[in-house]
Amino acid sequence: MEALKVENDTNALMKIKNLSKIFTIGTLKKKYVHAINNLSLDIGYKEVVALVGESGSGKTTVARVISKLYTPTSGAVYLEGNEVSKKMHRFEILDYRRKVQMIFQDPFSSLNPLYPISYAIERPLKVHKIAKTKEELKENVKNVLEECGLKPAKDFLNRYPYELSGGQRQRVGIARALATHPKLVLADEPTSMLDVSIRLDIMNLMLDLKEKEGISYLFITHDLAGAHYMADKIAIMYAGHLMEIGGSDDVINDPKHPYTQLLKKAAPKPESGLEPEKIDIGGEVPDLTNLPPGCPFEPRCPFAKPACRERLPDMIKVGEDHFVRCVLYS
Amino acid sequence: MKYLNFFLKDKKILIGTSLLIFFVIIAIFAPYLAPYSPNYMGFSPLQPPSLKHLLGTTATGQDVFSRVIWGTRISLSVGLIVGAFTTIISVALALFSGFFGGIVDNVISLIINVFLVIPPLPLMIVLAAYMPNKGVWSIIFVITVTGWAWGARTLRPQVMSIKNRDFVNASVIVGENSFHIIFVDILPHILGLVVANFFGTAMYAVISEAGLEFIGLGNVNDISWGTILYWAENDQAIFFGLWSWLLIPGVLIALLGTSMALMNFAVDEIINPKLKGERNG
Amino acid sequence: MAKILQVRNLHAGYELNDKVVHAVRDVSFDLEKGEFLGIAGESGCGKSTLAFAITRLLRSPGKVFDGEILFDGKNILKMEEEEVRKIRWKEFSIVFQASMNVLNPIMKIKDQIYDAITYHTHEYDERLFERAKELLEYTNISPKYLDAYPHQLSGGMKQRVVIAIALSLNPKLIIMDEPTTALDVVVQRRILQEVDKLRKKFGFSVIFITHDLSLLIEISDSLMIMYAGRVVEKASAREIFSDPLHPYTRGLMNSFPPLLGKRRRLHGIPGYPPDLSKKIEGCAFYPRCSERILDKCKNVEPQLMEIKKGHLVACNLYSKSYEEGAKNGSAKG
Known about the structure:
The complex is a heterotrimer.
Chain A: E1 14-25, E2 31-43, E3 48-52, H1 59-66, E4 74-79, E5 82-83, H2 90-99, E6 100-103, H3 117-127, H4 134-147, H5 154-157, H6 166-178, E7 184-188, H7 196-213, E8 216-221, H8 224-230, E9 233-238, E10 241-247, H9 248-253, H10 258-266, H11 306-310, E11 316-319, E12 322-324
Helix pairs in contact in A: 3-4, 3-6, 6-7
Chain B: H1 2-9, H2 11-28, H3 30-33, H4 64-100, H5 102-117, H6 120-130, H7 136-163, H8 166-174, H9 178-214, H10 225-234, H11 243-280
Chain C: E1 3-15, E2 20-32, E3 36-40, H1 47-54, E4 62-71, E5 74-75, H2 81-87, E6 92-95, H3 109-120, H4 125-138, H5 155-167, E7 173-177, H6 185-202, E8 205-210, H7 213-219, E9 222-227, E10 230-236, H8 237-242, H9 247-253, H10 294-299, E11 305-308, E12 311-313, H11 316-327
Helix pairs in contact in C: 3-4
């Protein structure tokens, strides 16, 4: 595993260095799913980084590793310089969880249906001992719910998740993540299961909270347009590899990697008029248990060269803060 | 509560609960309901049913009716106590095994499978035969040991499927400790199954207790429906045409078992519409 | 042009224990042969109920309360169950949301295709295999997958198999209810391209239902926007794109973060759709409408009217121009 040529921002809130995650499946005949391959990424303070990819790209796994639901197979994650490791003490883990929270994709299953909304918000406050008295607790719960657009809070406190709409539930999910005043929120496709007319509201809420509370987001999505709207930086993943990363406008307006170009072509562009772009793409998403040695995108790439099958290059600088992992630019 | 309405409408629950309450009342008020002392041996033996002895008398001159009433205590309490013990064991093991996974799961699953593979009746008989102090508690022990595994086996996959749901992951990320997640977040979701399981096992216990007592592996001087049957068989009630002595305890065992089974079905039915409510929510 | 489907004043919904949900309220529209109609609206606006009603698949507690559905001239709602079953799949077919889950996990792909075909026709064995191969080719799936089981295919491939099965008897109409929601954008684009190509080749009509208007604008011939169980706007895709009339449609068009161009803050449509189990006074969109006329929109329920040629809108903002137009004898409803 070669070191990144990227210059790391020493003021990064989170640094991910050469992260790999391999899952073992099967008992007798074992198979190894290479979900994440040598991923390196920085997230700055008050910064939104979008992690864009399709199913099987590994983007959700990255969130799960960062949130310590999984442990890295190799490589490491650093929060404010401290390594997030298996050997953390209980109080270190608790401190980490106060700073790093998560919003889930499915507003229907991310809230425990047997408890009222107040439960979801009270728990983080209690676990992290943020409120010292009953009054403080009530006050805090009310404030965070209203901050997330659920006004008046008292109308929502005793309701159950099934009584709320998808958009409202997602606001509860955001409020829960916000309750501990985290520094980083991992948003795992937070709008993909919501109606189109509500997505903007939720995204705007997240952007407002970023300004107000100084939160950074890792915004995971398959929607390039949503990523462009939300993010300062966009990172493109394919088959567990980071393929391109750069400023939001740079990656969208001048995509360097063939896969990014494909994503851009495939995305709906209703604003551009009525001539749909035809994409000429065959092949299927690669099998993560059986990845080729070189570039995983090679079988489907219109610009593939023989060198692509042999090796996957390091990240190559193609612009100001814009990097690509592709033989075409070496 | 809309459940109360549901409760009263469903025949199964109504019959099951009524029967159960009926037996509980008899058990509690046995001293007042039994006309004579169950152990008194002064009546004329082997009498058929009469106004004085509603179910006749035993070979040793005891009033069968009084014995049957007092017998309710042991038969019922063994059922409920074994139900409680096995439920606690199986729920705990299913929760730990399902939640922690890995080695913990492997070890517990192995233990569950071992207990499932051994045929319960022979094991019960062997254990009961070797128990030092034969009596109600030895029987409770034996039935519990052979009866807990099935519940654990059915609850474990439920726990595992709930564990994978986002709200459990959310609790982990919020920073909850495992104890809270297991007992506050996950357990309520399997409560319905746990209760259904309780009644299923209680039914199994009632019948097993009767069986073990019947073959004399308990303390034959205890008064339970099983021991009454033991003595009836031992003293050849059939030969003497004393149908009441032989039949009635058996019918009562069947009835108590039925009431438990009905409660089991009823709880199953309550769970399902609730599950539907969760899915739509 | 021949009309393959005519829906007239359809009322449908769900009869639940304590309330009745009116999911489809007085919906009328026509579909031409070979036309691609996109139906867009939020979840709960009744579009799925509409799809189920048209295909006679609405099961209790769902119910069609009133209206007519003429498929190729025949009233589907008046047919016997047997009759409908005979023409279902042959004349029209339906692809559901997350259809990939509809595939039988223990049957090979080819057997599932055979099933669909043999239920309605009498095909011979050899011909069945050729046909199955052909169908998979239409959706760009290698014939080696005929012998595979569903779990060996990716989500996108399974969905394409389902679409292939929907095509198997050359229906005149295919109804797709959110067929690409669970899929990735590249896969989505491929499937849409394939469906469009097949449509041009075989001439079937398509009704494509989704909540994501952005998908539809590029591929539909005409678009129908639904809100709270009613049709609020219907026109060619071009018209809707260049001149959206209903405030809801305008709101929807503004709800898509633009991929190209400068990043700027957008505002979606505030508020939530109404509860369809309650009676709605006046315009259902009133609470969320930024262009509303206070008294009128609160009390008067707008009717669907043809404001420009081929462009229908149900909105009080335009009723005046409609009346004027009618007076002058131009556009008619």
